[in-house]
Amino acid sequence: MPPAPSPSRAPERQHQHARHYSVGFPSLLVVECSSRPQKKGTKHHMKTRPTKMQPWDIKRLPTQYPPLPPLPPDWTLVASGTTAPATPVLEVAVACH
């Protein structure tokens, strides 16, 4: 049977808000974890946004925009020896073996 604790010694209380965990080398590195971590940046802003309470606001959908027109090509492939268009040209040389 283990010996009973002595009544003269008060039990040691650990701080309620901080927990200490040893990582790697026990005596050199101590990681202190928060018991109430705070949200940062975008996560906080998304959580604290106003909620939609009005029926017209609840039924409102995201804006539908028309599709963008196709972009002009940055490079036009032209066989060597032909006339070049006004757009920038990337010439492709045919390798003969």
UniProtKB/TrEMBL annotation:
Q: Where is this region: Disordered?
A: 1-67
Q: Name one GO biological process term.
A: translation
| Any one of the GO CC terms | chloroplast
Fetch the Pfam families from UniProt: DUF5323 (PF17257)
UniProt name for this protein = 50S ribosomal protein 6, chloroplastic
Compositionally biased spans, kind Basic residues: 37-50
The organism sits in which domain of life? Eukaryota
Could you tell me which InterPro entries the record lists for this protein? Ribosomal_cL38
Gene Ontology molecular function, alphabetical: rRNA binding; structural constituent of ribosome
